[in-house]
Amino acid sequence: MTLNELKHQGLKKWVEEAVALMKPKAVYVCDGSQEEYDRMIDICVKGGLATPLNSAKRPGCYLFRSDPSDVARVENRTYIASKTQEEAGPTNNWINPVELKKTMTELYTGCMQGRTMYVIPFSMGPVGSNIAKIGVEITDSEYVVANMHIMTRVGKKVLDVLGTNGEYVPCLHSVGKPLAEGESDNGKWPCAPLDKKYISHFPETREIWSYGSGYGGNALLGKKCLALRIASVIARDEGWLAEHMLILKITNPQGVSKVVCAAFPSACGKTNLAMLVPTLPGWKVETIGDDIAWMKFGPDGRLYAINPEAGFFGVAPGTNMDSNPNAMRSIEKNTIFTNVALTEDKDVWWEQIGYDAPGKLIDWKGNEWIQDKANKAQEPAAHPNSRFTAPARQCPAIAPEWEDPKGVPVDAILFGGRRPSTIPLVHQATDWVHGVFMGSIVGSEITAAALDLKAGTIRRDPFAMLPFCGYNMGDYFQHWINIGKKTSADKLPKIFFVNWFRKTKDGKWLWPGYGENSRVLAWIFDRCAGTGKAVETPIGYMPTVDAIERPAGVSEADMKELLAVDIEGWKKEIADIRENHYPKFGNRLPKELMNELDAIEKRLGK
Ligand code: OXD
Ligand code: MN
C-alpha cells in the first residue's frame, strides 16, 4: 500500500513528518499479507541477513544472526520519559522528555537514508476486541516487519478498525544505520553503538521512540514497549491491568476448566508453564499466552484476560522435547530463529536441545563450532538469549478460545521467582491485598558470582514488572489495590505464590518441576473450586501435606520441607523487605502493603 491510500489523516500526517525527518528512499504501508512476509524474508536472504533452513526438516524457517552487540533488551538504555522523574519512579531510567526528544530527533535526522520506511499498522489483541489496542510502527527493518507479522496482527484489517480518526499508539523505530548512495548492509546486521541506542517511552502522550537496536523487545515495539510499558499507564488511567503474565486454561478429569495467569521474572519458565504437559492423569493444560496478559472487568464483574500477542518470542536454549514438547512442535515450521547455531544440514541447534551437536556447527557469531564436552568453559554455540519467533496458532496446546475477543474469565493469579530457600512450593493469599503484597515482593535469588552481588541476595522484581512498568511502581501497587475494590471479593481471582526452584542444602532440586507442576496447578484449581485441603499459616493458606500428590523421586520428607513455613527464613525475608525493598518507594508505597508486612511479621512471632 502507498501512503496516499491511508484514510486516517492524523496517521498520514505523522508518517509524512517521519518521512521528512528520516529521509527514507521509499515508503511502504504494510498490508499483512503472506506475500508481504515472503518479500521481507526474501530481501533479508538476498541481503545476506537470513539463511533459509532445510525445507524438509524446517519448512518456512529462517535463521538470522544479529550483531554480537545487539542480542537482548537494553535496560540501561530504556527510558520512561514522563514529565517528571517522580512519575517514572525509582525503578525506571528517566530523561526529561523535551531533552530526550531533542537528542533523538537529531539521531533520527536522515537515519533512514538508503532504506525503505515500513509503516506497520498492528493490533495487540484480536482485531476489534474491546480489550485490544492499535499501534502503528514505523521501521526501516525488514526483520522487524517479518517478526511483527508473527507477533501481532498486522495490516489492512487493522486500518479498517482504525477508520479515519481512531486512536493508535505511534511507535517510531530505526536501526540507526543510514546507507550511503549505492551502499548495502552486505550481510551485516545494522544497528547503532550502545551509547546511541535509546528505547524511549513518553507515557503522557503514549508514544514510543526506539533507535539503534534491531533486536527483540527493543525493536518489536508492540511487545514490551506498547503491551507493557505504555499499556500499564493506559490501564492505570482506565482501570484495568496490563501484566507480564502467561495465561493458561486447565481442565480437570471431570471436564471443568479454570484460567490461570502467572507472573514470573524473565527466564523463570513462563513459556514452559504456559505449554505444560500434565503428568497428572486426566488433566489438560492449554495455552492462551506465554508472556503478556491484559485483564479488564467484564459486565459480570469478573476480570477477563486476553493475550495481546499472536506469536511466541521464546528463548531457545533449554527448550527440548522434555522441558517443552509443545514449544518444540510450535517451531517445526514458519519460524524465525535468531542467534541459534546452524547444523551442516541447515537445521538449528542450541544448548540443551536434548541431543549432542550433530557434527560441525556454525555458531551464533557465524564461526565454525565443534562441540567439546570435556571443555566446560567452551563458549555456547547458541547465544543464551537466542530466540524463536513462531505463530501461536502452531502450538498443539493452543486453547480454542485464545483469540476470543471477549477474553477469558480469570480464576487464579500466580506469582513466583527463583527462590532456592524460604519460599514454599505454594501458598495462597488470604485476600486480595495480601495477594498484592505477594506480587510486590517477587524476586529471584542471586547465585554465587553473578553480577557481583552477594550470593543469597534477593533481586526483587515486583510483579515481574520491574523492567516493564511505565510509571512509578509505588503507584502501580496502589493501582493493584484499587482494582480489588472495583468488584466483590468472590469475583476476584484468587492469588497464589509458587516456587518450583527449591533446593536442598547441598544444591539438589527438591521439586522436579515441568509437567509435575500440574500437581500444584491441580491444588490451585481445587482451591478455586472451593475444595482443596488447606491450613492457615502465618504466611497464608498452604496445602496439607496430603493435598498434593507426591511425584516419583520426591520423598515424604522432601514434601514436608517444600510445604513447611520456614519461620526463621521468613523473618529474614520480612527484614529484607523492610530494610532494602520497600524503602525504595518512599511515600508512594501504599500503607496497605506496610500493614500487610507488619501483620505477617506479627504472625511469625518473636
Ligand atoms: C522476554 C523477557 O523476552 O521477559 O519476554 O525478557
Ligand atoms: Mn517476558
TrEMBL record:
<dbReference type="GO" id="GO:0005525">
    <property type="term" value="F:GTP binding"/>
</dbReference>
<dbReference type="GO" id="GO:0006094">
    <property type="term" value="P:gluconeogenesis"/>
</dbReference>
<keyword id="KW-0464">Manganese</keyword>
<feature type="binding site">
    <location>
        <begin position="514"/>
        <end position="517"/>
    </location>
    <ligand>
        <name>GTP</name>
    </ligand>
</feature>
<comment type="pathway">
    <text>Carbohydrate biosynthesis; gluconeogenesis.</text>
</comment>
<dbReference type="InterPro" id="IPR035077">
    <property type="entry name" value="PEP_carboxykinase_GTP_C"/>
</dbReference>
<dbReference type="GO" id="GO:0033993">
    <property type="term" value="P:response to lipid"/>
</dbReference>
<dbReference type="GO" id="GO:0030145">
    <property type="term" value="F:manganese ion binding"/>
</dbReference>
<feature type="binding site">
    <location>
        <position position="418"/>
    </location>
    <ligand>
        <name>GTP</name>
    </ligand>
</feature>
<comment type="function">
    <text>Catalyzes the conversion of oxaloacetate (OAA) to phosphoenolpyruvate (PEP), the rate-limiting step in the metabolic pathway that produces glucose from lactate and other precursors derived from the citric acid cycle.</text>
</comment>
<feature type="binding site">
    <location>
        <position position="387"/>
    </location>
    <ligand>
        <name>GTP</name>
    </ligand>
</feature>
<dbReference type="GO" id="GO:0005829">
    <property type="term" value="C:cytosol"/>
</dbReference>
<dbReference type="GO" id="GO:0042594">
    <property type="term" value="P:response to starvation"/>
</dbReference>
<feature type="active site">
    <location>
        <position position="268"/>
    </location>
</feature>
<dbReference type="GO" id="GO:0071333">
    <property type="term" value="P:cellular response to glucose stimulus"/>
</dbReference>
<dbReference type="Pfam" id="PF17297">
    <property type="entry name" value="PEPCK_N"/>
</dbReference>
<feature type="binding site">
    <location>
        <position position="291"/>
    </location>
    <ligand>
        <name>Mn(2+)</name>
    </ligand>
</feature>
<feature type="binding site">
    <location>
        <position position="224"/>
    </location>
    <ligand>
        <name>Mn(2+)</name>
    </ligand>
</feature>
<keyword id="KW-0963">Cytoplasm</keyword>
<feature type="binding site">
    <location>
        <begin position="215"/>
        <end position="217"/>
    </location>
    <ligand>
        <name>substrate</name>
    </ligand>
</feature>
<keyword id="KW-0342">GTP-binding</keyword>
<dbReference type="GO" id="GO:0006107">
    <property type="term" value="P:oxaloacetate metabolic process"/>
</dbReference>
<dbReference type="GO" id="GO:0019543">
    <property type="term" value="P:propionate catabolic process"/>
</dbReference>
<dbReference type="Pfam" id="PF00821">
    <property type="entry name" value="PEPCK_GTP"/>
</dbReference>
<comment type="subunit">
    <text>Monomer.</text>
</comment>
<dbReference type="InterPro" id="IPR013035">
    <property type="entry name" value="PEP_carboxykinase_C"/>
</dbReference>
<feature type="binding site">
    <location>
        <position position="244"/>
    </location>
    <ligand>
        <name>Mn(2+)</name>
    </ligand>
</feature>
<keyword id="KW-0210">Decarboxylase</keyword>
<feature type="domain" description="Phosphoenolpyruvate carboxykinase C-terminal P-loop">
    <location>
        <begin position="240"/>
        <end position="603"/>
    </location>
</feature>
<dbReference type="InterPro" id="IPR008209">
    <property type="entry name" value="PEP_carboxykinase_GTP"/>
</dbReference>
<feature type="binding site">
    <location>
        <begin position="267"/>
        <end position="272"/>
    </location>
    <ligand>
        <name>GTP</name>
    </ligand>
</feature>
<dbReference type="InterPro" id="IPR035078">
    <property type="entry name" value="PEP_carboxykinase_GTP_N"/>
</dbReference>
<protein>
    <recommendedName>
        <fullName>Phosphoenolpyruvate carboxykinase [GTP]</fullName>
        <ecNumber>4.1.1.32</ecNumber>
    </recommendedName>
</protein>
<keyword id="KW-0479">Metal-binding</keyword>
<dbReference type="GO" id="GO:0004613">
    <property type="term" value="F:phosphoenolpyruvate carboxykinase (GTP) activity"/>
</dbReference>
<dbReference type="InterPro" id="IPR018091">
    <property type="entry name" value="PEP_carboxykin_GTP_CS"/>
</dbReference>
<dbReference type="GO" id="GO:0046327">
    <property type="term" value="P:glycerol biosynthetic process from pyruvate"/>
</dbReference>
<comment type="similarity">
    <text>Belongs to the phosphoenolpyruvate carboxykinase [GTP] family.</text>
</comment>
<feature type="domain" description="Phosphoenolpyruvate carboxykinase GTP-utilising N-terminal">
    <location>
        <begin position="13"/>
        <end position="236"/>
    </location>
</feature>
<feature type="binding site">
    <location>
        <begin position="385"/>
        <end position="387"/>
    </location>
    <ligand>
        <name>substrate</name>
    </ligand>
</feature>
<dbReference type="InterPro" id="IPR008210">
    <property type="entry name" value="PEP_carboxykinase_N"/>
</dbReference>
<feature type="binding site">
    <location>
        <position position="73"/>
    </location>
    <ligand>
        <name>substrate</name>
    </ligand>
</feature>
